[in-house]
Design a protein that fits this description.
Its cofactor is Zn(2+); Fe(3+). The protein is α/β, with parallel strands linked by helices and 409 residues long. The chain has helices spanning 86-93, 98-103, 108-117, 120-136, 152-168, 191-208, 226-238, 255-261, 275-282, 292-297, 305-310, 331-342, 346-353, 355-359, 389-392; strands spanning 2-10, 29-38, 41-47, 60-62, 67-70, 72-74, 139-145, 172-180, 214-219, 242-247, 266-269, 287-290, 315-317, 378-381, 399-404, 407-408. The protein has two domains: 2-70 and 368-408, Urease, subunit C, domain 1; 73-359, TIM Barrel (Alpha-Beta Barrel). It binds N-(iminomethyl)-L-glutamic acid (NIG) and zinc ion (ZN). N-(iminomethyl)-L-glutamic acid binds next to α3.
Length: 409
Protein backbone atom coordinates (compact mmCIF):
# COMPACT_ATOMS: atom_id res chain seq x y z
CA UNK A 1 0.00 0.00 0.00
CA UNK A 2 1.16 3.53 -0.79
CA UNK A 3 -0.03 6.23 1.61
CA UNK A 4 0.10 9.71 0.13
CA UNK A 5 -0.49 13.29 1.30
CA UNK A 6 0.69 12.87 4.89
CA UNK A 7 0.94 16.39 6.32
CA UNK A 8 3.59 15.32 8.84
CA UNK A 9 5.12 11.87 9.13
CA UNK A 10 6.32 11.79 12.74
CA UNK A 11 9.08 9.74 14.39
CA UNK A 12 10.96 8.97 11.19
CA UNK A 13 14.27 7.34 12.10
CA UNK A 14 16.68 5.41 9.92
CA UNK A 15 18.08 3.68 12.98
CA UNK A 16 17.00 3.92 16.58
CA UNK A 17 18.59 4.01 20.01
CA UNK A 18 17.24 4.65 23.50
CA UNK A 19 16.82 8.42 23.93
CA UNK A 20 18.22 10.12 27.04
CA UNK A 21 17.91 13.62 28.48
CA UNK A 22 18.15 16.40 25.91
CA UNK A 23 17.87 13.95 22.97
CA UNK A 24 14.27 13.33 23.95
CA UNK A 25 13.23 16.74 22.62
CA UNK A 26 14.20 15.68 19.10
CA UNK A 27 11.33 14.06 17.22
CA UNK A 28 12.34 13.80 13.53
CA UNK A 29 9.58 14.29 10.97
CA UNK A 30 8.92 14.68 7.25
CA UNK A 31 6.56 17.39 5.98
CA UNK A 32 4.22 16.45 3.15
CA UNK A 33 5.28 12.85 2.90
CA UNK A 34 4.40 9.43 1.51
CA UNK A 35 4.82 6.03 3.15
CA UNK A 36 5.01 2.61 1.53
CA UNK A 37 3.94 -0.60 3.23
CA UNK A 38 4.40 -4.20 2.10
CA UNK A 39 2.48 -6.80 4.08
CA UNK A 40 3.04 -5.97 7.74
CA UNK A 41 6.10 -3.74 7.26
CA UNK A 42 7.16 -0.22 6.41
CA UNK A 43 9.37 -0.44 3.30
CA UNK A 44 9.86 3.17 2.27
CA UNK A 45 9.00 6.79 2.95
CA UNK A 46 9.88 10.16 1.50
CA UNK A 47 8.66 13.55 0.37
CA UNK A 48 5.58 13.77 -1.88
CA UNK A 49 7.54 15.92 -4.33
CA UNK A 50 9.94 13.00 -4.91
CA UNK A 51 7.12 10.62 -5.80
CA UNK A 52 6.16 9.84 -9.41
CA UNK A 53 2.61 8.59 -9.06
CA UNK A 54 2.41 7.52 -12.72
CA UNK A 55 4.86 4.69 -11.94
CA UNK A 56 2.95 3.43 -8.93
CA UNK A 57 1.03 0.18 -9.15
CA UNK A 58 0.30 -0.22 -5.44
CA UNK A 59 -3.07 0.34 -3.80
CA UNK A 60 -3.13 4.06 -2.89
CA UNK A 61 -4.55 5.48 0.34
CA UNK A 62 -4.91 9.26 0.47
CA UNK A 63 -4.21 10.47 4.03
CA UNK A 64 -5.69 13.87 3.05
CA UNK A 65 -3.38 15.91 5.27
CA UNK A 66 -3.47 13.68 8.35
CA UNK A 67 -0.50 13.55 10.71
CA UNK A 68 0.86 9.98 10.92
CA UNK A 69 2.67 8.73 14.04
CA UNK A 70 3.99 5.39 15.29
CA UNK A 71 1.46 3.73 17.61
CA UNK A 72 1.99 4.03 21.37
CA UNK A 73 4.12 1.48 23.22
CA UNK A 74 2.50 1.12 26.65
CA UNK A 75 5.20 -0.62 28.69
CA UNK A 76 3.42 -0.93 32.08
CA UNK A 77 -0.17 -2.16 32.50
CA UNK A 78 -2.30 -4.47 34.60
CA UNK A 79 -5.24 -4.88 32.18
CA UNK A 80 -6.10 -8.43 33.27
CA UNK A 81 -8.41 -7.82 36.24
CA UNK A 82 -11.95 -8.65 37.23
CA UNK A 83 -14.63 -5.99 37.71
CA UNK A 84 -13.76 -2.51 38.96
CA UNK A 85 -13.11 -0.64 42.22
CA UNK A 86 -15.12 2.58 42.06
CA UNK A 87 -16.18 2.07 45.69
CA UNK A 88 -12.55 2.78 46.66
CA UNK A 89 -12.60 5.78 44.32
CA UNK A 90 -15.42 7.19 46.45
CA UNK A 91 -13.52 6.37 49.67
CA UNK A 92 -10.52 8.28 48.32
CA UNK A 93 -12.75 11.29 47.53
CA UNK A 94 -13.87 11.17 51.16
CA UNK A 95 -10.24 11.35 52.29
CA UNK A 96 -9.07 7.76 52.79
CA UNK A 97 -5.56 7.26 51.39
CA UNK A 98 -4.39 4.54 48.97
CA UNK A 99 -2.14 3.08 51.72
CA UNK A 100 -5.04 3.05 54.25
CA UNK A 101 -7.33 1.28 51.77
CA UNK A 102 -4.61 -1.34 51.20
CA UNK A 103 -4.12 -1.82 54.96
CA UNK A 104 -7.83 -2.56 55.43
CA UNK A 105 -7.75 -5.39 52.87
CA UNK A 106 -8.93 -3.25 49.95
CA UNK A 107 -6.81 -2.33 46.96
CA UNK A 108 -4.80 -5.14 45.41
CA UNK A 109 -6.35 -7.69 47.84
CA UNK A 110 -9.83 -6.62 46.73
CA UNK A 111 -8.87 -7.40 43.11
CA UNK A 112 -7.28 -10.70 44.21
CA UNK A 113 -10.59 -11.88 45.73
CA UNK A 114 -12.33 -11.13 42.43
CA UNK A 115 -9.68 -12.93 40.37
CA UNK A 116 -10.23 -16.06 42.49
CA UNK A 117 -13.98 -15.89 41.74
CA UNK A 118 -13.64 -15.28 37.98
CA UNK A 119 -13.07 -17.90 35.29
CA UNK A 120 -10.20 -17.71 32.82
CA UNK A 121 -12.61 -17.17 29.92
CA UNK A 122 -14.45 -14.34 31.71
CA UNK A 123 -11.12 -12.69 32.59
CA UNK A 124 -10.04 -12.97 28.98
CA UNK A 125 -13.30 -11.39 27.81
CA UNK A 126 -12.91 -8.41 30.18
CA UNK A 127 -9.23 -7.84 29.33
CA UNK A 128 -10.00 -8.15 25.62
CA UNK A 129 -12.54 -5.33 25.82
CA UNK A 130 -9.95 -3.09 27.50
CA UNK A 131 -7.41 -4.01 24.84
CA UNK A 132 -9.83 -3.16 22.02
CA UNK A 133 -10.59 0.21 23.63
CA UNK A 134 -6.93 1.19 23.96
CA UNK A 135 -6.11 -0.06 20.48
CA UNK A 136 -8.65 2.46 19.18
CA UNK A 137 -6.77 5.14 21.15
CA UNK A 138 -3.57 4.25 19.30
CA UNK A 139 -1.81 1.62 21.43
CA UNK A 140 0.05 -0.90 19.27
CA UNK A 141 2.31 -2.67 21.80
CA UNK A 142 1.66 -3.38 25.45
CA UNK A 143 3.17 -5.03 28.51
CA UNK A 144 0.70 -6.79 30.82
CA UNK A 145 1.41 -7.90 34.40
CA UNK A 146 0.01 -10.60 36.63
CA UNK A 147 -0.20 -9.66 40.32
CA UNK A 148 -3.87 -9.93 41.27
CA UNK A 149 -3.70 -13.73 41.64
CA UNK A 150 -1.48 -13.86 44.74
CA UNK A 151 -1.72 -17.67 44.83
CA UNK A 152 -0.28 -20.38 42.61
CA UNK A 153 -3.58 -20.94 40.80
CA UNK A 154 -4.49 -17.22 40.64
CA UNK A 155 -1.15 -16.08 39.23
CA UNK A 156 -1.06 -18.89 36.68
CA UNK A 157 -4.64 -18.09 35.67
CA UNK A 158 -3.68 -14.46 34.99
CA UNK A 159 -0.53 -15.40 33.08
CA UNK A 160 -2.46 -17.90 30.95
CA UNK A 161 -4.97 -15.19 30.08
CA UNK A 162 -2.06 -12.96 28.97
CA UNK A 163 -0.71 -15.91 26.96
CA UNK A 164 -4.07 -16.24 25.17
CA UNK A 165 -4.12 -12.50 24.46
CA UNK A 166 -0.62 -12.84 22.94
CA UNK A 167 -1.86 -15.58 20.63
CA UNK A 168 -5.08 -13.82 19.63
CA UNK A 169 -4.16 -10.14 19.32
CA UNK A 170 -2.31 -8.42 16.46
CA UNK A 171 -0.68 -6.13 19.07
CA UNK A 172 2.87 -6.85 20.30
CA UNK A 173 2.51 -8.11 23.85
CA UNK A 174 4.99 -8.73 26.69
CA UNK A 175 4.09 -10.50 29.90
CA UNK A 176 5.38 -9.80 33.42
CA UNK A 177 5.20 -12.05 36.49
CA UNK A 178 4.21 -9.85 39.47
CA UNK A 179 3.22 -12.33 42.19
CA UNK A 180 5.15 -10.01 44.54
CA UNK A 181 2.50 -7.29 44.25
CA UNK A 182 1.37 -7.61 47.88
CA UNK A 183 1.17 -10.30 50.56
CA UNK A 184 -2.06 -12.30 50.47
CA UNK A 185 -4.08 -12.12 53.73
CA UNK A 186 -3.03 -15.64 54.78
CA UNK A 187 0.68 -14.69 54.56
CA UNK A 188 0.44 -11.20 56.14
CA UNK A 189 2.53 -12.34 59.10
CA UNK A 190 4.60 -14.90 57.19
CA UNK A 191 6.41 -13.06 54.40
CA UNK A 192 8.95 -15.84 53.86
CA UNK A 193 6.10 -18.34 53.46
CA UNK A 194 4.69 -16.41 50.49
CA UNK A 195 8.13 -15.68 49.02
CA UNK A 196 8.94 -19.42 49.16
CA UNK A 197 5.66 -20.08 47.35
CA UNK A 198 6.66 -17.60 44.63
CA UNK A 199 10.16 -19.05 44.29
CA UNK A 200 9.53 -22.77 44.78
CA UNK A 201 6.04 -23.25 43.38
CA UNK A 202 5.22 -20.47 40.93
CA UNK A 203 8.52 -19.62 39.23
CA UNK A 204 9.31 -23.16 38.00
CA UNK A 205 5.92 -23.41 36.25
CA UNK A 206 6.06 -19.85 34.92
CA UNK A 207 9.47 -20.63 33.42
CA UNK A 208 8.73 -24.10 32.08
CA UNK A 209 5.49 -22.95 30.40
CA UNK A 210 7.21 -19.72 29.20
CA UNK A 211 4.43 -17.65 30.74
CA UNK A 212 6.47 -14.49 31.43
CA UNK A 213 9.07 -12.27 29.79
CA UNK A 214 9.90 -10.28 32.96
CA UNK A 215 9.65 -10.39 36.74
CA UNK A 216 8.36 -7.46 38.81
CA UNK A 217 8.19 -6.64 42.54
CA UNK A 218 6.25 -3.83 44.27
CA UNK A 219 9.19 -2.56 46.34
CA UNK A 220 7.47 -0.28 48.84
CA UNK A 221 6.94 0.26 52.57
CA UNK A 222 4.12 -2.04 53.64
CA UNK A 223 4.67 -4.24 50.58
CA UNK A 224 8.08 -5.81 49.68
CA UNK A 225 11.28 -4.62 51.37
CA UNK A 226 14.57 -4.17 49.50
CA UNK A 227 15.89 -7.47 50.93
CA UNK A 228 12.71 -9.32 49.91
CA UNK A 229 12.86 -7.70 46.48
CA UNK A 230 16.47 -8.88 46.02
CA UNK A 231 15.57 -12.41 47.06
CA UNK A 232 12.81 -12.58 44.44
CA UNK A 233 14.85 -10.93 41.66
CA UNK A 234 17.75 -13.32 42.24
CA UNK A 235 15.40 -16.30 41.98
CA UNK A 236 13.81 -14.88 38.82
CA UNK A 237 17.20 -14.30 37.29
CA UNK A 238 18.00 -18.02 37.60
CA UNK A 239 15.03 -18.65 35.32
CA UNK A 240 16.12 -15.98 32.84
CA UNK A 241 13.54 -13.37 33.88
CA UNK A 242 14.84 -9.79 33.75
CA UNK A 243 13.41 -7.31 36.26
CA UNK A 244 11.01 -4.41 35.82
CA UNK A 245 10.37 -2.85 39.24
CA UNK A 246 7.53 -0.89 40.90
CA UNK A 247 9.77 1.64 42.66
CA UNK A 248 9.35 4.76 44.79
CA UNK A 249 5.61 5.21 44.33
CA UNK A 250 4.75 6.11 47.93
CA UNK A 251 8.10 6.38 49.74
CA UNK A 252 11.85 6.52 49.25
CA UNK A 253 11.69 2.74 49.21
CA UNK A 254 15.12 1.83 47.83
CA UNK A 255 13.35 0.47 44.74
CA UNK A 256 15.42 2.50 42.30
CA UNK A 257 18.71 1.39 43.82
CA UNK A 258 17.75 -2.29 43.98
CA UNK A 259 16.43 -2.15 40.40
CA UNK A 260 19.61 -0.56 39.07
CA UNK A 261 21.78 -2.99 41.06
CA UNK A 262 19.98 -5.91 39.41
CA UNK A 263 20.07 -4.33 35.94
CA UNK A 264 16.33 -3.86 35.72
CA UNK A 265 15.10 -2.91 32.25
CA UNK A 266 12.95 -0.27 33.92
CA UNK A 267 12.11 1.17 37.33
CA UNK A 268 8.55 2.43 37.26
CA UNK A 269 6.49 5.11 39.11
CA UNK A 270 9.19 7.34 40.75
CA UNK A 271 6.69 9.78 42.29
CA UNK A 272 8.84 9.90 45.46
CA UNK A 273 12.41 10.47 44.43
CA UNK A 274 15.45 12.41 45.66
CA UNK A 275 18.76 13.44 44.11
CA UNK A 276 20.28 10.11 45.24
CA UNK A 277 17.84 8.11 43.08
CA UNK A 278 18.24 10.55 40.18
CA UNK A 279 22.05 10.14 40.27
CA UNK A 280 21.70 6.38 40.56
CA UNK A 281 19.43 6.19 37.48
CA UNK A 282 21.50 8.68 35.50
CA UNK A 283 24.56 6.44 35.84
CA UNK A 284 22.75 3.30 34.72
CA UNK A 285 21.22 1.65 31.67
CA UNK A 286 17.87 1.34 33.45
CA UNK A 287 14.97 3.33 32.01
CA UNK A 288 12.83 5.46 34.31
CA UNK A 289 9.18 4.80 33.46
CA UNK A 290 6.81 7.50 34.63
CA UNK A 291 3.12 6.71 35.21
CA UNK A 292 1.58 10.14 35.77
CA UNK A 293 -2.00 8.86 35.31
CA UNK A 294 -1.56 7.11 38.69
CA UNK A 295 -0.31 10.32 40.34
CA UNK A 296 -3.30 12.13 38.79
CA UNK A 297 -5.83 9.56 39.98
CA UNK A 298 -4.36 9.27 43.50
CA UNK A 299 -3.78 13.04 43.82
CA UNK A 300 -0.08 12.52 44.44
CA UNK A 301 2.93 14.58 43.46
CA UNK A 302 4.14 14.02 39.90
CA UNK A 303 7.64 12.69 39.23
CA UNK A 304 10.13 15.54 38.57
CA UNK A 305 10.47 14.80 34.85
CA UNK A 306 12.40 18.01 34.02
CA UNK A 307 14.98 17.33 36.71
CA UNK A 308 15.34 13.78 35.45
CA UNK A 309 15.75 14.87 31.84
CA UNK A 310 18.30 17.44 33.00
CA UNK A 311 20.25 14.57 34.59
CA UNK A 312 20.35 12.76 31.21
CA UNK A 313 18.01 9.93 32.27
CA UNK A 314 16.12 7.88 29.64
CA UNK A 315 12.40 8.30 30.36
CA UNK A 316 9.44 6.26 29.15
CA UNK A 317 5.78 7.03 29.79
CA UNK A 318 3.20 4.30 30.40
CA UNK A 319 -0.45 4.17 31.44
CA UNK A 320 -0.29 1.79 34.46
CA UNK A 321 -3.85 0.80 33.39
CA UNK A 322 -5.21 -0.94 36.53
CA UNK A 323 -8.40 -0.88 38.64
CA UNK A 324 -6.90 0.85 41.70
CA UNK A 325 -4.61 3.69 40.72
CA UNK A 326 -5.15 4.28 37.00
CA UNK A 327 -8.36 2.85 35.52
CA UNK A 328 -7.44 4.24 32.10
CA UNK A 329 -5.13 3.27 29.26
CA UNK A 330 -5.66 6.51 27.39
CA UNK A 331 -2.20 7.47 26.11
CA UNK A 332 -3.25 10.72 24.38
CA UNK A 333 -4.54 11.89 27.78
CA UNK A 334 -1.31 10.66 29.44
CA UNK A 335 0.75 12.70 26.97
CA UNK A 336 -1.33 15.82 27.68
CA UNK A 337 -0.97 15.22 31.43
CA UNK A 338 2.80 14.85 31.07
CA UNK A 339 3.03 18.14 29.18
CA UNK A 340 0.69 20.01 31.52
CA UNK A 341 1.78 18.67 34.92
CA UNK A 342 5.39 17.56 34.36
CA UNK A 343 6.28 20.25 31.81
CA UNK A 344 7.45 17.77 29.22
CA UNK A 345 7.49 19.12 25.67
CA UNK A 346 5.08 17.37 23.28
CA UNK A 347 8.10 15.90 21.45
CA UNK A 348 9.57 14.55 24.70
CA UNK A 349 6.27 13.03 25.78
CA UNK A 350 5.66 11.42 22.37
CA UNK A 351 9.19 9.97 22.30
CA UNK A 352 8.67 8.65 25.84
CA UNK A 353 5.44 6.91 24.80
CA UNK A 354 6.75 5.54 21.49
CA UNK A 355 10.43 4.76 20.93
CA UNK A 356 11.47 4.75 24.61
CA UNK A 357 8.31 2.80 25.51
CA UNK A 358 9.43 0.24 22.93
CA UNK A 359 12.85 -0.01 24.59
CA UNK A 360 11.13 -0.31 27.98
CA UNK A 361 9.71 -3.67 26.82
CA UNK A 362 12.50 -4.61 24.40
CA UNK A 363 10.44 -4.40 21.21
CA UNK A 364 12.28 -1.47 19.63
CA UNK A 365 13.42 -3.60 16.69
CA UNK A 366 9.81 -3.93 15.61
CA UNK A 367 7.94 -0.81 16.76
CA UNK A 368 8.25 2.68 18.26
CA UNK A 369 9.29 4.65 15.17
CA UNK A 370 8.71 5.00 11.43
CA UNK A 371 11.68 2.94 10.27
CA UNK A 372 12.13 0.70 7.22
CA UNK A 373 11.66 -2.93 8.27
CA UNK A 374 9.59 -2.10 11.34
CA UNK A 375 5.91 -3.02 11.61
CA UNK A 376 3.42 -0.65 9.98
CA UNK A 377 1.79 0.21 13.33
CA UNK A 378 0.53 3.73 12.75
CA UNK A 379 -1.84 6.38 14.05
CA UNK A 380 -3.65 8.65 11.56
CA UNK A 381 -4.93 11.87 13.11
CA UNK A 382 -8.00 13.94 12.33
CA UNK A 383 -7.13 17.37 10.83
CA UNK A 384 -4.89 19.21 13.33
CA UNK A 385 -2.91 22.43 13.04
CA UNK A 386 0.33 21.12 14.56
CA UNK A 387 1.66 18.24 16.61
CA UNK A 388 1.39 20.34 19.79
CA UNK A 389 -2.38 20.52 19.17
CA UNK A 390 -2.62 16.86 20.33
CA UNK A 391 -1.76 17.50 24.02
CA UNK A 392 -3.07 21.07 23.90
CA UNK A 393 -6.58 19.94 23.05
CA UNK A 394 -6.58 17.42 25.91
CA UNK A 395 -9.56 15.11 26.23
CA UNK A 396 -10.53 15.46 22.57
CA UNK A 397 -10.19 12.27 20.54
CA UNK A 398 -8.07 13.35 17.59
CA UNK A 399 -7.33 9.86 16.31
CA UNK A 400 -9.03 9.10 13.01
CA UNK A 401 -7.65 5.63 12.25
CA UNK A 402 -5.25 3.09 13.70
CA UNK A 403 -3.22 0.67 11.57
CA UNK A 404 -1.69 -2.44 13.10
CA UNK A 405 0.67 -4.61 11.03
CA UNK A 406 -0.36 -2.84 7.84
CA UNK A 407 -4.11 -3.21 8.40
CA UNK A 408 -6.58 -0.53 9.38
CA UNK A 409 -8.42 -1.70 12.52
N1 LIG B 1 1.46 0.21 42.82
C1 LIG B 1 1.22 -0.96 42.66
N2 LIG B 1 0.45 -1.50 41.71
C2 LIG B 1 -0.45 -0.78 40.89
C3 LIG B 1 -1.74 -0.51 41.58
C4 LIG B 1 -2.46 -1.73 41.84
C5 LIG B 1 -3.83 -1.56 42.40
O1 LIG B 1 -4.12 -0.66 43.21
O2 LIG B 1 -4.63 -2.40 42.02
C6 LIG B 1 0.22 0.48 40.35
O3 LIG B 1 1.21 0.30 39.65
O4 LIG B 1 -0.20 1.61 40.60
ZN1 LIG C 1 1.75 -0.86 38.12
Amino acid sequence: MLIINIKQLIGVREKTHLLRGAEMADLPLLENAFLKIEGEEIVNYGLMQALDLSNETDEIYDAKGAFVLPTWCDSHTHIVYAGSRENEFIDKIKGVSYAEIAKKGGGILNSATRIAETSESELLEQAWQRLEAIKNLGTGAIEIKSGYGLSVSGELKMLRVIQQIKEKSPLLIKSTFLAAHTYPQSFKENHQGYIRQIIDEMLPIVASEKLADYIDVFCEEGFFSVAETEQILEAGYKYGLKPKIHANQLNLSGGVQVGVKHQAITVDHLETISQTEIDCLANSKTIGTLLPSAAFFLRMQYPPARQMLGANIALALASDFNPGSSPSGNIPFLIALSCIQMKMLPEEAINAATINGAYAMEVAEQVGSVTKGKLANLIFTKPISSLAYLPYSFGENLIDKVMIKGRFQ
